[in-house]
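Hi support team,

I submitted a single chain yesterday and got back a structure, but I'm not sure I'm reading the token output correctly. Could someone confirm the output below corresponds to the sequence I sent? I've pasted both exactly as they appear in my results page.

Thanks,
R.
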Amino acid sequence: MAEYNDVYRRAHYYDIVFRRDVSREVQFLEDEYRERHGRPPSAILDIACGPGYHAREAARRGMTAFGIDLRPEMITFAREQAAADGVDVSWIAGDMRRFKLPQPVDAALSSFDAMDCMLTNQEVVEHFRAIAGNLTPRGLYVVESTHPRDCPMTGYGNFHYRGERNGTKVAIDWATNQPVPDPLTQVIDVEVTMHVTHDGTVETFTDHARERLLLAQEFVALAKLSDALEVVAFHGDYARGQPFDMSKAARRMIVVMQKTS
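Hi R., thanks for writing in. Yes, this is the structure output for that exact sequence:
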């Protein structure tokens, strides 16, 4: 599994760059669930949660919320932020391919390409089965991925993220080695560089990890192979009226899966 240790274990710096309002994304999850069940979800799981943005937002809305992440530093940071927010979230440092929650949840969300760390079909199937094993009957799993247009097999593309807080500037540059996916495995060896500027000094951290590009029909096929989930919808953004197509308005690939009977 991909593991950007020098980036993800520096949770505070990561948060400076990526903290954002996720209320629209949690609302999307609520609306997808309500359409199929006639009520909003009462419990959700934030997969590869990082600082736990979605779990904390769900808790603010009165839901029972869980967050799981492989990096214990992220879980520690998320727990501190939840305490500062005054919300109650259950945090787990663990592997999203195999885990067991204290109770099943109605819906789970994997955002910001968290699934690209699973490099083989078997890992994806194990993950889907683990998700389904922690969902209530007909529960939903929503996955957000980069639109294939923006990360094609001919080249990964370059992604740059910037943030500043209290005099600390953080810049994260993704794919600085200009990687090209393996045409057979769709796996990419990616270099990521983090620059932190504070009090006139600059620290640089460089990471390498492997990622896999998953296409839409692979989600369909691997969900079916898992015998635990099925794809029920695609969207081009966290907007239920936005189709997954090649228009500029389709910024992301949002996959909605449902637990099978």
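A quick pointer for reading it: The longest helix spans residues 23-37. Let us know if anything else looks off.

Best,
Support desk
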